[in-house]
Design a protein that fits this description.
The chain has helices spanning 2-66, 70-90, 99-120, 127-157, 159-196, 199-213, 228-276, 281-297, 300-317, 327-345, 369-381, 414-421, 437-448, and strands at 325-326, 349-355, 363-364, 388-397, 400-407, 454-458, 464-471. The chain is of the alpha+beta class. The radius of gyration is 41 Å and the shape is flat.
């Protein structure tokens, strides 16, 4: 152990020392260069800020002259403050070469601010205001031209600095190449010396591992060294003796996991079956109460049709969950449900269908559309004295079928939409059929194995639109 450890420490120390020297040298050089470069760059940025802020002041002043609104005034005051700040920063740019030009530059900024302040106090249509506005434009042009002049002076002043950086960079590249070559040579020598002491025992371990990969666990693993590899070989041999036991444990664990997964599936199917078997007594009470009043006020022919719709709805609700239906079946049961509700709401409830007949044979989970329509009836039609309208559109989108269910009710809050899409239980009204909106979302995502199969668009006071994106192709395991 001590032998290999010393070899590794020696090699590591050499590499760390060489890399540290290179890193420290490059860091010091880069830091000094960066400080100089940032100083020069900051001078250019200060001049550029002056030009930009002066143009912004002129723009905001023109907007304020045209439209003297508090908002435009606030923008003008803000741009003036920015220009005043930029003016203060210009003093840091002064040197012997640009002293005279910079003094005139600062005076021009002061003149622009004074003219702006004077113009803000004049009437917009006065001759003085027009003249001052033209004066601000001329001052702004002078500032822009002088900014270019100052930048050109800065470029000429710091040109030797840039040339020095380029020359130093070339020398640094040469130094880096020599350092890389030297470091590579030292590492090759050290690696060769180090590998001689560990290559042979590692090769023995590799051959033993190859035997184990072929399923031969009867051959003892032995390595004759006096370092860590000897300890590794003994541990490897001990591991060999335990592989059979581990394999058996893995098989048993896999079997238990498979049984657990099957139980989860059965539990999920049981949950969905229990959902389908739930018909809320309030819903049945309201429906039967409606039928009794209809029987009292009208003849029996329409009541017979209504009873047929109720029977079809109950029969469809008790379908097996492991059998998918077509979109055509879902639309038929929705029409049956709406016939029942129209008997209750009369002319207050309107249903508009826009169906592409070529797109209604796609597979869909049973009891998908009816709970969504029911939610629209409860929350959009029933609370309104004038009732409401529900529209269903089936649109062909090549790879999928788009089903749009819209109402003109009061809409949903963002919180409720989030709860539904997160598959959280939302409080169900007492007179619903009991199949919750959140359960519809969960079943659709499980059925198609994708999360974007349903979206909800709603604004409070502007109705709700539920969009179903039904793929045309599904995996056979769901059929």
């Amino acid at each position: 152990m001590i032998s290999i450890q010393r070899k590794i420490l020696t090699l590591t120390t050499v590499v760390i020392v060489i890399m540290s020297i290179i890193w420290i040298t490059l860091t010091i050089y880069n830091y000094k260069t960066q400080v100089k470069y940032n100083h020069v760059l900051n001078r250019f940025l200060v001049l550029n800020d002056v030009s930009s802020s002066s143009n912004q002041v002129i723009t905001d002043l023109s907007n304020y002259i045209i439209h003297s609104t508090p908002e435009n005034l606030q923008k003008l005051e803000s741009s003036k403050k920015v220009m005043e700040s930029a003016r203060n920063e210009v003093f840091n740019v002064r040197n012997e070469e640009n002293d005279f030009t910079l003094t005139n530059y600062i005076n021009l900024m002061g003149s622009l601010l004074e003219t702006t302040d004077r113009l803000m106090g004049l009437e917009r249509d006065s001759e003085a205001a027009v003249n001052d506005l033209a004066e601000t434009s001329r001052i702004g042009n002078y500032i822009s031209d002088m900014t270019l002049t100052l930048i050109d002076m800065e470029l000429k002043t710091h040109e030797p600095f840039y040339r020095g950086i380029m020359e130093q960079s070339i020398e640094l590249v040469k130094l880096g190449i020599w350092m890389i070559l030297l470091t590579s040579l030292l590492l090759l020598l050290a690696t060769y010396w180090f590998s001689l002491s560990i290559t042979r025992p590692v090769q023995q371990l590799t051959e033993a591992a190859s035997e184990l990969s072929k399923g031969r666990f009867d051959k003892e693993i032995t390595v004759k060294t006096n370092d860590e590899i000897s300890f590794l070989a003994k541990t490897f041999d001990h591991m060999r003796s335990n592989i059979n036991n581990l394999i058996q444990q893995i098989k048993e664990t896999a079997k238990l996991e498979h049984e657990l997964q099957q139980n989860k599936i059965l539990l999920q199917e049981s949950h969905f079956r229990s959902l389908q078997s739930q018909i809320n007594p309030h819903f049945l009470f309201n429906t039967l109460n409606t039928l009794s009043k209809k029987a009292y006020l009208e003849g029996s022919e329409e009541i017979s049709d209504l009873l047929v719709s109720v029977a079809d709805l109950l029969r469809y609700n008790l379908k097996q969950i492991d059998r998918s239906v077509t979109l055509r079946d879902e639309l038929m049961i929705v029409e049956q449900y709406m016939e029942i509700q129209k008997t209750r709401f009369m002319d207050r409830l309107q249903l508009h269908l826009e169906i592409d007949e070529s797109s209604i044979d796609v597979a869909i989970p049973a009891l998908t559309l009816q709970p969504i329509i029911e939610n629209a009836v409860i929350h959009a039609v029933e609370p309104s004295i004038d009732g409401g309208a529900i529209s269903i559109r089936v649109i062909n989108k090549d790879e999928y079928v788009m089903v749009q269910i819209e109402d003109d009710g009061t809409g949903m809050s963002e919180e409720k939409i989030t709860q539904i899409l997160l598959e959280r239980q939302v409080q169900i009204e007492g007179h619903s059929t009991g199949i919750g909106f959140s359960n519809v979302v969960k079943r659709l995502r499980l059925f198609y194995e994708r999360d974007d199969v349903i979206t909800i668009e709603s604004t409070l006071g502007s109705g709700t639109a539920v969009l179903l994106k039904i793929p045309r192709q599904r995996g056979e395991k769901h059929d």
